[in-house]
Design brief:
Number of strands: 7
Radius of gyration: 21 Å
Largest sheet: 5 strands, parallel
Strand order of the largest sheet: 5-4-1-6-7
Distance between the termini: 20 Å
Order of helices and strands: HHHHEEEHEHEHEHEHH
Shape: elongated
Structural class: alpha/beta
Length: 251
Amino acid sequence: MKWLLENMLMPPTGLYLMVLAGLVLRWRARRPLVRGAATALAASGALLSVTLSLPLVSFLLLDGLQSFPSLDPAADSIDADVIVVLAGDVDCDPPEYGSDQPGALSQIRCRYGAHLSRRTGLPLVITGGVLRPDRRPASHVLRDYVEDELGVTVAWTEDDAKTTRGNARGVARLMNQRGYTRAAVVTNAWHMPRSVEAFEREGVDVLPAPTGAHPAPSQIIRGLIPRARSMRDSSWALHEYVGMLWYRISD
């Protein structure tokens, strides 16, 4: 139900439904006031669809979340007991590999987590549960990628989490069992605020280790040309803002 609601309400589906609802209401309405409201609803959905597909808008939305600075790339050590990578997306059965592979977001996080572990010697942990009933936990898919292709050993995995809050709870439990208190949390820069909040609520002392920061458009004119990828980026940003609000009102 949560997955269905999220996909129905968030862009772009939610915007398309706004336009459709407005058009249907306008078609069925008899009163001028209702017809006017229906027109405004459809126009708002269309305008938002264009606005959220602008690279400049998607950058501003994501950059508002990119509040944690990157770690010093020249440092040989960091103030943490363990490095925690939050699993993201998984590509299911790509034909060229034949088995599940980390998606683009997960690869970015894995590469940076492995880089930090290799550089500092700290144990590397990956958290992520089963995304589909017929699949392995995401953490296992990422673990295989890190060990087989990046050459870094994964100390352990947390296999139950399906949300950022679940990541935090599962990792906090395992850290307590091992006597660890401070974690360098690796995730995308725009996902870091919600991640830090979730981990700190579980009593974990967090060192933010953001990666994959979203860059600004190279030119203003390029930022004003609609692109499908920018709609995706805007959707990610709105998902984070809604997620942070939900975490705060649901506790």
